[in-house]
Design goal:
The chain is of the alpha/beta class. About 40% of the residues lie in helices and about 15% in strands. It has six helices and seven strands; from the N terminus they run αααβαβαβββαββ. The strands form two sheets. A five-stranded mixed beta sheet has the order 2-1-3-6-7, with helices on both faces. It is globular, with a radius of gyration of 18 Å. The C terminus is likely disordered.
Length: about 170
């Protein structure tokens, strides 16, 4: 049986000697070298990657993937919005649970955890439920290493003018 999954979980076994060596330095949030040379550079590059608009900023958050999911759903959506979640792994299921906890209306497209999102089902839900304002999908479900079809998913979401939340290897992007 062919294994089509990619395990994209970083860790000490897959980290180079140079990265491990760089991790030996104890950075403090009040260090100018840390803020100007690392944090500001990362924030600037993330904003440049995400938008060409002026006056945007990036905020780095420390925490688990779940903390980022909750922060994004809780700040990007309100109780008047409706979220469609693709759930084909534990993180998709967790997005649904977080939306429910935050009292945000949520529709879930449940798939088997080793099955990529069914794009025809996804598009059909968007076509038939115009009250959906946002869609969310885990690109790389790190519990299995399964990859969802990111480009195709984004094209469909854009065609229906939906706001998009993606989780990539435990980092959420809006």
């Amino acid at each position: 049986m062919k294994n089509d999954y990619l395990l994209l979980t970083p860790g000490p076994l897959s980290t180079s000697d140079t990265v491990r060596h760089a991790m030996l330095k104890d950075w403090c949030t009040w260090d100018e070298e840390y803020n100007k040379g690392i944090v500001e550079v990362i924030r600037h590059k993330l904003v440049k990657l995400a938008t060409q608009h002026e006056n945007y900023t990036g905020v780095l958050m420390q925490g688990s993937g779940t903390a980022s999911i909750e922060a994004t759903i809780g700040s990007a959506l309100n109780q008047h919005d409706k979220l469609l979640v693709i759930a084909n792994g534990v993180y998709g299921v967790r997005m649904n649970q977080i939306a429910q906890y935050l009292k945000i209306s949520c529709v879930i497209l449940q798939q088997k955890e080793t099955q990529p999102v069914d794009l025809k089902q996804f598009e059909n839900i968007l076509r038939t439920d115009s009250t959906i304002t946002h869609v969310a999908m885990v690109h790389c479900e790190t519990t299995t290493g399964m990859l969802n079809p990111l480009i195709e998913f984004c094209k469909i979401a854009k065609a229906y003018n939906k706001s998009l939340s993606l989780m990539q290897c435990r980092a959420l992007v809006v």
